[in-house]
Amino acid sequence: MNKKSIKAKNLHKDVPSNWYYKSIYVDKNILQSFVHNKRFKEVKKLVEPSGGKLLDIGSADGVFTKV
Length: 67
Fold this sequence. Notes:
This protein is an all-alpha fold and 67 residues long. It has one domain (15-66). The chain contains 3 helices and no strands. It has helices at 3-13, 19-26, 30-46. Helix 2 (19-26) packs across helix 3 (30-46). The model has no long low-confidence stretch (mean pLDDT 77).
């Protein structure tokens, strides 16, 4: 593993599991809210509703699943 990979791994380790939810809905960080909601809108254009249950693996706090 190179130094950049190790550094990225360590940074990711320090990110709380509820980071998306907290930054968008609790802290109401305007910039993060804008960026995440823009991403969510773009994904929503590409994905059809499942019409049923959906298993989301590796979604952290599940905010992205609500798209």
